[in-house]
Amino acid sequence: MKDNHHPPLTRTLSACLGAVLVLATTAEAGSRDFAYSYETTTMPAGSLELENTATWEKGIEGNSDVGRFDIRHEFEYGFTDHLQVSFYFADWSYTKPINESGKAKFENVAMEAIYNLTDPNSSPFGSALYGEITAGDHLLGLEGKLLLQKNIGRWILVYNIGGEIRWEGDAYGDDGELSQSAGIIYQTNPSWTLGAEILHEIALPDVSSIGHSGVYVGPDASWRKGNITLTLAGLWQLTSLSTEPDFQLRTILSLDF
Fold first, then answer.
1. Where are the beta strands (DSSP E) in 119-246?
2. Of the segments 4-13, 22-31, 235-244, which one has the largest average pLDDT value?
3. Among 50, 143, 145, 177, which is least packed, fewest CB within 10 Å?
4. Cβ density class 182-218: b for 16+ within 10 Å, e for less
């Protein structure tokens, strides 16, 4: 006789499997596994996250003794399941030359949007479009990127390519930059991912000529527990640009609500 109080075993297993997949996808979409590259997944609709990014650069302004912190405070919101919008309500920096007092400076505010085109979990590869507008004192910047992602078991591979143009100074002179980055990580367990990233930047002085080119590479790690995610990456410069940092360390602390 059929038991009306207990669903069939196959139905129960299917429901449990579906719940696990939904939770896994939600966790992946609401966290950063890379510090310099973006993934193509976006936050679920209605989700809110506070993200704090700190980047320490050593060896800037042609002086290996000069250090600088760049700090970004950001609210991210899942506008739809495919559109994630962000507001950087405070971008500021702190520069500390050797044997001199440090100087803090407010830089700008910014708006960012990521639109997911294809999901790496259900498509051969993931893709998304990234856009950002930056505004500050005598500063206006526009940035766009194409984001690509491939998931292979516990491995995640990403590639970003794009460009930026900035108008700044009293005369609002323009300059730009082309950039591409790639990363690979392996999920060792539900809490940890380990991998590496590479970053390539090309300066465009006055947006009319090709300037110097810098390449950076280093390890990447991410840890998550509950609604907290911490991502850490350190990049060393492989080229010999005296005006660019020799080393940079970035941490991203995220809190999901």
1. 126-136, 139-152, 155-168, 173-187, 192-204, 213-225, 228-237
2. 235-244
3. 50
4. bbbbebeeeeebebbbbbbbbbbeeeeeebeebebeb
How many C-beta atoms lie closer than 10 Å to residue 222's C-beta?
23
The fold adopted by the segment(s) 9-256 is: Porin (2.40.160)
- Domain positions in the chain are 9-256
8 A C-beta contact, residue 41 and residue 149: yes
* Cα(235)–Cα(86) distance, integer angstroms: 25
Identity (one letter) of the amino acid at 31? S
For residue 74, which of 48, 55, 107 has the smallest C-alpha distance?
A: 48
Residue 218: closest CA among 179, 249, 178: 249
User: Rounded to whole angstroms, how far apart are CA atoms 130 and 235?
Assistant: 23
pLDDT tens per residue across span 184-223? 999 999 999 999 999 999 999 887 788 999 999 999 999 9
20: its two tokens = 């696990």
